[in-house]
């Protein structure tokens, strides 16, 4: 077919003959919404002929796919996606709204702006700066920009004043030809900024209608159809995530559920009482029952909350204000001057204007950014406000319960989401020529179920070599009954028990019972406890935690003639706050790494065998031991002594923490080296990476020389596998280029010759594909989720991987509740089967878990979360404010020996 001109005089495009299909549609046939290229073939069962391999001249950000894996058993599963077609019309990109306003306000202004005739048919706006139009805007006179003055109609609240007017400048930015996106998914074009912009534009198009109707955050929007109150002045709302994703030969829409935390609507007095856990409105007056600490807590909660204010003047309309702060006095104690010069207070002012006195004149008041003071009883919290705050500990459990859905229920909710997503009713989807085949959800794809690796247990085990159960639960959790021993169990010579629970709630007989059960648990897995009657003390949780532990340690040293304890067993009260735990962990750091093991009092007093086995799984590695290792046949590439391999895991999350970890092959991938560094938050490239990697490799070489007693030619590593977490898709190229160069420079400066072969992998956990909803009952767990070991890398239809590069999804864990999330891997230089086997095997040696986990053991997720507990809080600010840009953050390096 010869090239044909595009609409609006765009560049010519070549014709194609492609099908759209793959997943088997539900009964009743496919439902196609909108119009677009290939829409008539979507869901018809036609395999995409455009799913060819990337052309040789096309550059890639990552590594080209070397081949498709073949190991394991082929299975079919469903996933939460449906098909869409790439539109044919040119898309015009404009910059809009230069002034910084909330996205909610920007959406209202742009909707008002598009009533102007030159904006018909309407375009799609992202709430920030990007406006995409299906046609070129005629600004008149050939101009490429124009400034509009838009009134906020329908939102002004005072009849005697005109609505506020906002100045909006619309400037032409770029022209987007969707042809580049089609070429990309056909493997004929490299991924670059034009591809990213085209995907961004289409994502804005499908989100435009719901964002105008419902509360939203970056990529999700929420409805009150499913919601629950969770206390603390908060509610949870069910939401929906949607994202257009490229795949070989086709465009997909990934649809998933999400959960949003919202401020509970209603009278402000009721919300304030719930936040402070009080039951009498009179307790919101300054005094012994409402001190400065309580007011600050309430102020932090209410800052930025929009409330509707009952008018002081009878008959006037209600108005909306935003709470900025709270007063420290009651309404009758706050004085100000009227326009006629008279002095009055807030309570008298509202009584005079409305002819009704305040019911609670001594209650504190809300203040706005302009200084207006408003009594609580005149304020009502408006519905639909996202609480962009840290989730309170009491709410976390309820949030997990609300978010958890069995796969069948999750799929049903996703199907019902089409009523809310409303693709068929969206004028924006129609205007841009986007076709969406709702009938292809869920899509059926091909996967492979990998065989479980064999694990080795220690001497004395009934069966030293064992395979993991089908449920992917390791035998060690049942060690007492089935006689499994740790590979390298450690000895505890001297130890002390410190209880921060009162001796009334945790008396001596109970403590001695716990001590006996702990010793029995250690013995059952092969650990030796020499001291049978340790020192134990009761300490106040409000006291100096470090001093209490030090005093207990000194008592142990006196008992053992100057030898201090190997371990502190610390009993925490049920209502312990994070400060006690942090202080205990920090004490272990400042005392040259003395091991601490914390137990919750309510857990250990009624604990059974499995509890103590799990405690030993945590404690033994802290003491330098090894719990379980992979059999050589299950990790031959990593355990090849002729090609010593270092496996590292690194993370640079958006929180103020960094972590890098490493495991060494000759130590069976289970010993780790910790390192910490301070860096600035919200930076993608790891600061101090050179120093941390250099230190780890030096320790590795020293270990090979002095512990493994290797020959000089075998001291240095031959291969380095680097797992990298916390990388956004837009930063893949920068992180790969800069951090791989750092790794090469470290090896060069350490004179490692020949230089080790470096494999750099990106591991993603925050995607929304759910490879669940098994098509065969025997593939399901009791929860309804997939059994683990399912690797999603289709070798025939190739529907879900990157159009050009080597990536795959590995579901290496079994979900106990709800729907499991697979890990997404990108980049490598091994064959597909070899690298996938490495990643899969590493998911089975996570020391503190009795199950396979979702990401390889060297990944630093847990240490990132806990690193701040090991750092002197006087050195770096790790408060909530520390997570913002331009503040110091704590970095952790966790390498292996």
TrEMBL record:
Q: Region entry Disordered: which residue ranges?
A: 1-48
Which InterPro entries is this protein grouped with?
ArgoL1, ArgoL2, Argonaute_Mid_dom, Argonaute_N, PAZ_dom, PAZ_dom_sf, Piwi, RNaseH-like_sf
Domain named Piwi: residues: 567-859
Q: Which domain of life is it from?
A: Eukaryota
So where does this one cross the membrane? none
> CDD domains under this entry?
PAZ_argonaute_like
What is this protein's record name? Piwi-domain-containing protein
- Which organism is this protein's natural source? Gymnopus androsaceus JB14
């Amino acid at each position: 077919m010869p090239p044909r001109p595009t609409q609006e005089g765009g560049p010519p495009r070549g014709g194609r003959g492609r099908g759209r299909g793959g997943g088997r549609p539900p009964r009743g046939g496919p439902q196609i919404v909108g119009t677009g290229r290939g829409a008539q073939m979507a869901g018809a069962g036609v395999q995409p002929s455009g799913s060819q391999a990337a052309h040789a001249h096309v550059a890639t950000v990552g590594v080209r796919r070397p081949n498709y894996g073949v190991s394991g058993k082929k299975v079919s599963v469903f996933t939460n996606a449906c098909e869409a077609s790439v539109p044919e019309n040119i898309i015009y990109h404009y910059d809009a709204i230069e002034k910084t306003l909330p996205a909610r306000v920007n959406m209202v202004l742009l909707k008002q702006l598009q009533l102007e005739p030159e904006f018909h048919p309407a375009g799609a706006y992202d709430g920030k700066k990007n406006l995409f139009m299906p046609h070129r805007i005629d600004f008149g006179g050939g101009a490429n920009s124009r400034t509009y003055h838009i009134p906020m109609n329908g939102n002004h609240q005072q009849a005697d004043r005109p609505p506020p007017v906002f100045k909006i400048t619309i400037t032409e930015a770029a022209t987007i030809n969707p042809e580049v996106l089609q070429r990309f998914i056909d493997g004929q074009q490299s991924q670059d900024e034009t591809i990213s912009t085209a995907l961004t534009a289409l994502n804005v198009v499908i989100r435009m209608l719901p964002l105008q109707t419902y509360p939203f955050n970056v990529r999700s929007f929420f409805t009150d159809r499913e919601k629950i109150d969770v206390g603390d002045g908060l509610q949870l709302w069910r939401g929906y995530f949607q994202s257009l994703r490229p795949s070989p030969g086709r465009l997909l829409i990934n649809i998933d559920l999400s959960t949003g935390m919202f401020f509970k609507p209603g009278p402000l007095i009721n919300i304030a009482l719930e936040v402070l856990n009080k039951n009498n409105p009179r307790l919101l007056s300054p005094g012994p029952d409402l001190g400065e600490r309580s007011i600050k807590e309430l102020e932090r909660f209410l800052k930025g909350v929009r409330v509707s204010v009952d008018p002081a003047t009878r008959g006037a309309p209600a108005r909306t204000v935003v709470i900025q702060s709270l007063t420290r006095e009651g309404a009758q104690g706050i004085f100000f001057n009227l326009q006629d010069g008279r002095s009055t207070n807030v309570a008298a002012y509202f009584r005079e204007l409305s002819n009704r006195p305040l019911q609670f004149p001594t209650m504190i008041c809300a203040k706005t950014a302009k200084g207006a003071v408003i009594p609580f009883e005149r304020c009502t919290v408006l519905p639909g406000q996202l609480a962009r705050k840290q989730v309170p500990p009491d709410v976390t459990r309820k949030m997990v319960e609300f978010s958890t859905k069995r796969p069948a229920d999750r799929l049903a909710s996703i199907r019902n989401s089409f009523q809310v997503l409303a693709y068929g009713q969206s004028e924006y989807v129609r205007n841009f020529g986007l076709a969406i085949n709702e009938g292809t959800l869920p899509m059926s794809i091909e996967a492979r179920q990998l065989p479980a690796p064999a694990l080795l247990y220690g001497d004395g085990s009934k069966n030293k070599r064992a395979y993991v159960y089908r449920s992917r639960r390791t035998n060690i959790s049942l060690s007492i009954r089935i006689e499994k021993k740790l590979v390298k169990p450690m000895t505890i010579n001297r130890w002390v028990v410190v209880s921060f629970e009162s001796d009334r709630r945790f008396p001596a007989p109970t403590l001695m019972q716990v001590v006996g059960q702990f010793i029995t648990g250690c013995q059952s897995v092969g650990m030796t406890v020499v001291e049978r009657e340790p020192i134990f003390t009761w300490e106040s949780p409000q006291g100096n935690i470090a001093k209490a532990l030090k005093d207990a340690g000194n008592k142990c040293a006196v008992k053992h003639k100057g030898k201090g304890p190997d371990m502190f067993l610390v009993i925490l009260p049920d209502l312990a706050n994070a400060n006690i735990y942090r202080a205990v962990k920090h004490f272990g750091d400042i005392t040259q790494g003395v091991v601490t093991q914390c137990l919750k009092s309510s857990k250990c007093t009624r604990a059974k065998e499995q509890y103590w086995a799990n405690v030993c799984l945590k404690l033994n590695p802290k003491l330098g031991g090894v719990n379980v290792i992979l059999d050589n046949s299950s990790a031959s590439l990593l355990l090849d002594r002729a090609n010593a391999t270092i496996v590292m895991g690194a993370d640079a999350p958006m929180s103020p923490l960094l972590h890098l970890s490493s495991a060494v092959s000759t130590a069976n991938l289970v010993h780790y080296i910790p390192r910490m560094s301070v860096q600035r938050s919200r930076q993608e490239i790891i600061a101090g990476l050179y120093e941390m990697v250099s230190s780890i490799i030096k320790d590795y070489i020293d270990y090979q020389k002095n512990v493994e007693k290797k020959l000089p030619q075998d001291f240095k590593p031959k291969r380095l596998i680097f797992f990298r977490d916390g990388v956004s898709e837009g930063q893949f190229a920068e992180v790969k280029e800069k951090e791989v160069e750092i790794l090469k420079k470290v090896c060069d400066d350490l004179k490692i010759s020949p230089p080790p072969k470096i494999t750099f992998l990106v591991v993603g956990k925050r995607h929304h594909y759910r490879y669940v909803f098994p098509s065969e009952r025997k593939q399901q767990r009791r929860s309804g989720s997939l059994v683990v070991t399912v690797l999603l890398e289709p070798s025939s239809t190739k529907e879900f991987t990157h159009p050009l590069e080597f990536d795959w999804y590995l579901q290496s864990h079994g979900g106990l509740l709800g729907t499991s999330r697979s890990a997404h891997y990108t980049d490598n230089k091994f064959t597909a089967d070899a690298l996938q086997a490495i990643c899969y095997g590493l998911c089975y040696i996570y020391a503190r878990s009795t199950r396979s986990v979702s990401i390889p053991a060297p990944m630093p997720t847990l240490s990132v979360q806990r690193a701040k507990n090991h750092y002197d809080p006087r050195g770096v600010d790790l408060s909530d404010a520390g997570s913002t840009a331009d503040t110091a953050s704590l970095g952790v390096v966790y390498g292996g020996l």
